[in-house]
Structure formats: structure tokens, C-alpha cells
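User: Could you check the structure of this?
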Amino acid sequence: MTIARGGSLPALVALTIVAAWTLMGQGASGPGRVNHEGRALPAMPKIDAPILFNTPAADAVLAAMQVFPKDNPWNEDISARPVLANSAKMIQRIGEAKKLAYNLDMAFVIVPANQPKIDVKIVEYPDESDKGPFPVPDNAPIEGWPIEGGSLANVQANGQGDRHMIVVDPVAGMLHEFYIGRRVGGAWQGACEATFDLKTNAQRPAGWTSSDAAGLPIFPAVARYDECERGKVEHALRVTFQKTRREFIYPATHFASALKDADLPAMGQRFRLKASVDISGMPKHARAMAYALKKYGMFVADNGGDWRISVAPDKRIQGLDALRKLRGADFEVIQTTGPRAGR
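Assistant: Sure, the predicted C-alpha cells are below.
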């Protein structure tokens, strides 16, 4: 998922890859284009300027994207995977009675192919960050905006918390994610940057973090309006827990704990909503997410509040309080798949 270090592809090869990506659907409407769900993908709209996540223009772009290959872990149907031997103990350890919660947190911006690339100063994890420059626009949103209020410029400069900043380049098929992104005096900086190639299944180097503690990407796991409105979230989600153990398992690459209790979840641990849980009465958008939790599950991505999943901070997404009816006891931990699973 990272950009290769120590050199670049020859220009002709690079152009060939981008052309192939376009023909696969990121700018064309070839016959029979379907995603891993079997949904027909429309043509990629023309992108002339940065597009914020909570707009109809973003919906059209996102509807045309295949995020990661069809056999990628985020796109893998795990509804029939075996349950982990200590699943019940792990659920008990986290909290069977605790409610599923959601954060309206992960905003993002979509950029055109010709978005100017700029230098971003990496201040905390330069050795575990990819090298710039990066296509970061002036209007890149910071985690939680606009739900938390205030002008974007003020949040960019003064906002608190993890301050994730996510930039999606659909034409090149690249994703750039920053931890503690900040823009002051027109200059961007971040604690860490992770670049993911959305055209491949490559992982970050073992031991590397990302903008999440697990070394995983955020954007592919965020529940978005376009998919909620279609009635199905078509990928795994991300989840946080207060306590995790000192281990990472596929597809994670990093841990962030000193605890070794085997009944605590590892980074990358995959949870699934039980098939027996009735979701038919949920409002449309909540039901779309519950569908994903049954079919694709959710990856442990970071330390945080227990049973918290990430949703785009888009006011068009409605009815999510119905998710609070789900409890820890409604979930199970599955046996995590390996690099070649789902093929």
C-alpha cells in the first residue's frame, strides 16, 4: 500500500498503470464493469477541482470507484468464516452489554489528477511515513469537521484530537492519510503520513504505523452517504476499543499496547455481527451499515472508545441511533484470514 522507496517506475510503465486503472473504470464506462458486490459501476465523472465528501459530486465519484481489488481484505465476504476459539471470552472482556457506538468523524476530500503536490512537514513519525510531495488542497477537511462546527480554516489551524486528514485521488488510485494534520500560515504539517495504493493489496511494512495505530487505511473503512443511500455498505468497517493487546494480525502492521492478555483484541482483529441478529427493522442507513457488519465485519484499527465505528460526518446520513440497539453480545470474533484468502 505504500509508495515504493528508493526510486520510481519508468515513465512509460507508470503511464501504462494509470491507463489500465482508467480502463478498469476510474475514468471510463467499459462494458461489464462491476465491483466485488456485483454492482455495476458507472463511468467516473470528470474531476476538475477538489470535491468535499458531503456533496452530490463526491457521491458520483465514489459510486464509480472500486476501492482496493475485489479480493482485498476490506472487500472479503467473511459471513461464513469460522469463529475464533476465544471469541466469547474476548467479547466478555470488552463488554457484552456495551452498546455499539458511532463517531461522525472521518471527513475526506477528493482531488483531481492534476492537483498540485506540495511539501508536508512530518513531525513525529518521519521514518514510518511515505515521502512527499502530496496532492493536498487548501480545503482539505480535518477529522470531525463540519459536524463539530467552526470554520474550516479555524479547524485546520486550531482543532484538537487526532485530526485525521484524508485525501483521495481516484484517477491515480492513490490515498493519502495524515495523523494530526494541521495548516498554519498556509503551510501543512502532520505527525505521520501513510500512502496507500488502492489498485493493489500491498501492505505497509511490518512494524509501521499509519494515521491509525494498526497501520491500516481509514478511508476504505468509513461508512459514506452514497453507499448508505444505496442500501448497502460494501466493505469492512473500522472499530476502536479502549484496551488492545501487544500484537498485530493481518492485515494490520502495527500495535499500540503493552498488554499481553490473549483475550484482548489485537490490532487487525476482525469482528462480525452475528447472522442471527435481526436488522430488518432498522432505518435504511443504519441497516446498510449492519449489512456490512454481517458480511464484511470490522477491523480493530485504533485504541479509543469501545465498540465505536467510523462514519463520514455527513448530515445527510440519518437514523443511526438504531445502531445503539446492538450490543457487544451481538458480535463474534472470526478467525482472521491470511494474505491469499478470498482469492
